[in-house]
Design a protein that fits this description.
By secondary structure, this protein is of the alpha+beta class. The protein is built from one helix and nine strands.
């Protein structure tokens, strides 16, 4: 071989991406980003409703304990379609808000539950506060039995 070069074929230039390869890479990245965005949005919607249900359940458990500890009746009150609720000792309720985009879809009759001192017995045994979040996701916060055990469930 003249010049000491091996192979008698055409000399190739520097390697790079062709336009077709670049288009394929961009298309694949677009699909992956689209799927990732949908998954992220769904995750955030689930997170908002779970956070709200945990918040309501924690409030209910706390006021039950406060009724027992302080020997004062404690109240949780919400209205259907609302995104706020009132909680605290009877006659001194404080207003709190649910996370953005979450509302009370269904509340017990009258929307009010009282935990009575000194044992923390509940006025509305087997009651449910149903929360609706973004993407029409729903979780229920149930008050089970007269002792006021609080359980979060999907409907």
């Amino acid at each position: 071989h003249p010049g000491g070069l091996g192979g008698g074929g055409a000399v190739r230039g520097p390697k790079g991406l062709s336009l077709l390869e670049l288009v394929v890479v961009v298309a694949v990245l677009g699909v992956l980003l689209g799927v990732g965005f949908v998954s992220l949005q769904s995750y955030r919607q689930n997170l908002a409703i779970r956070e709200a249900a945990l918040q309501v359940a924690t409030e209910l458990m706390n006021i039950r304990q406060q009724a027992r500890r302080l020997s004062l009746d404690h109240v949780f009150e919400a209205r259907q379609g609302g995104s706020t609720y009132q909680v605290g000792p009877a006659g001194a309720l404080m207003e709190r808000s649910l996370p953005a985009g979450v509302v009370f879809q269904r509340v017990p009759a009258g929307g009010r539950v009282t935990f009575y001192a000194p044992y923390g017995r509940v006025s509305a045994a087997n009651s449910t506060y149903e929360l609706q979040g973004p993407g029409a996701r729903v979780l229920q916060v149930n008050i089970v039995g007269s002792t006021g055990k609080v359980v979060v469930r999907a409907p």
